[in-house]
Amino acid sequence: MNRESFAAGERLVSPAYVRQGCEARRSHEHLIRLLLEKGKCPEDGWDESTLELFLHELAIMDSNNFLGNCGVGEREGRVASSLVARRHYRFIHGIGRSGDISAVQPKAAGSSLLNKITNSLVLDIIKLAGVHTVASCFVVPMATGMSLTLCFLTLRHKRPKAKYIIWPRIDQKSCFKSMITAGFEPVVIENALEGDELRTDLQAVEAKVQELGPDNVLCVHSTTSCFAPRVPDRLEELAVICANYGIPHVVNNAYGVQSSKCMHLIQQGARVGRIDAFVQSLDKNFMVPVGGAIIAGFNDAFIQEISKMYPGRASASPSLDILITLLSLGSNGYKKLLKERKEMFSYLSNQLKKLSEAYNERLLHTPHNPISLAVTLKTLDEYHDKAVTQLGSMLFTRQVSGARVVPLGSVHTVSGYTFRGFMSHTNNYPCAYLNAASAIGMKMQDVDLFIKRLDKCLKTVRKEQNKDSDVSGVGNYDKTEDVDIEEMALKLDNVLLDPYKDASS
């Protein structure tokens, strides 16, 4: 309702009441105006009524929602199901145009405005998270792997002779296949074991650049967030190597936005050397459905080149999801989540350390990994080569998701490349281990329940592998707790194969 509508309403209802309602609406509109003027995430989150008002105002700016619209083209925002229309808040046209995912659509002003505001808010949050000098970013409706592929395809036009991508090894299929899909040959650089940690072998990277020739290398493809005992790559040193040899540098920052350490590495790498783009997942960092990523960088022109490489229009769903989430949380709400995640990392680390010591195992010392932890499974591996994978199956059937067991000697082929010691990021890690991570949104009760179930599973595996040993864990596991889950799990244990065999895909 505009001012004239409110004035007309005063003839039907007491003017004092109407003016009160008008002032209430203005408070909503004030928040919306500030958002459009500043293009930054509000400090405090919006309530749902303000959010829905904003989304409705944007949606009616799209031609498919015009009262008198007459569409005679092949794409006119027609939707057969009203449920589908409501699910998307009636944003039907998507974002971008055929030549640029960031371009404005003439018949979808509301969707275009949504896209611009979303990218502006995401840029603000990336700066808040630690990459203060980032110049540009955009949300793309693809997960991390395909978003990396888009970056590599953009670089192809700048470096037509290049056919190699130098890649410090991380045993995760999506980032590896992103290079294959783009048509390049990955050059795998094995990690160096330093204590318990697997770290970037800088000498091997530089030697490979010299061997292949800088002009033949498309880029260095590095990683921040990863499973322990691998730790984030030495981004500063890699950035310097890339700057010295004139080689682009693309960083896989999949779930690194939630870590101030990962974001600091990117900021420092860009300060001392070269980082062309860094890619991060929406679902892992912002708790939205899978399907979107953020491509960001320090050169606005190059990021715009990547956006123009995307063929055709794109789904607005990931942009809508992250916009709603950020406006609901506000910057203070997101900072609170980041703070809680750090606290949960310390808590999970302490609890895993206590439990591992009770079973003559130990928490691996990986201080450079701010998200993932690893506990040795040496004693299980001594009993039987299948004991480690059995533990993974037992955790899975007891509804523990995300935990990851890594046996010794696994061999796996990905797109024609064979990896020894697959999932451990190296050919011969000294021991089998179990991973757990403290990711954004984790609560203390999640940690406590995980420790209880892990304790019980370790007891069970030990008893099966060594009938004569009397092992007791530290968890005071209540036998009456989770009884339904336990009964179901016991039935599944006998029929379920190792669900972690392809857990890294």
UniProtKB/TrEMBL annotation:
Family to which the UniProt record says this protein belongs: Belongs to the SepSecS family.
Q: What does this protein do?
A: Converts O-phosphoseryl-tRNA(Sec) to selenocysteinyl-tRNA(Sec) required for selenoprotein biosynthesis.
Has keyword Isomerase?
no
N6-(pyridoxal phosphate)lysine sites (modified residues): K284
What is the protein name given in its UniProt record? O-phosphoseryl-tRNA(Sec) selenium transferase
Its EC number is 2.9.1.2
Where does this chain mainly localize? cytoplasm
Q: Which organism is it from?
A: Daubentonia madagascariensis
